[in-house]
Design the sequence.
């Protein structure tokens, strides 16, 4: 499955547009990460616990989007985007979406 954030794929042509596909996950902050982040706020630097949480969330949302595209018979998802939103205090949604398509090599 090819995943791109562009509207086209060089050297390929879109032969069928399947549908908009999406995947999301809602994650809550972890008390241990909050404590570590509080200390890090005092001295500055990367909040690694939150970085790891976002990486996990992005992977989960992408996996769900790809699964939906595969169910439709697509072999690529184009124009992929990510969005985040706050759900409640301490929880956020990460949302991935794009257009599921069938692509093939362009003939020269």
Sequence:
């Amino acid at each position: 499955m090819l995943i791109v954030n562009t509207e086209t794929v060089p050297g390929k042509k879109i032969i069928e547009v399947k549908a908009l596909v999406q995947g999301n996950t809602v994650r809550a902050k972890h008390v241990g990460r909050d404590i570590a982040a509080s200390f890090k706020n005092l001295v500055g630097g990367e909040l690694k616990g939150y970085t790891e949480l976002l990486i996990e969330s992005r992977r989960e949302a992408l996996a769900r989007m790809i699964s939906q595209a595969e169910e439709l018979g697509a072999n690529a998802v184009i124009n992929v985007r990510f969005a985040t939103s706050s759900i409640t205090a301490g929880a956020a949604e990460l949302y991935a979406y794009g257009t599921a398509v069938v692509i093939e090599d362009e003939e020269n």
About this structure: The radius of gyration is 18 Å. The chain has a mean pLDDT of 87. The helical segments are 31-43, 48-71.
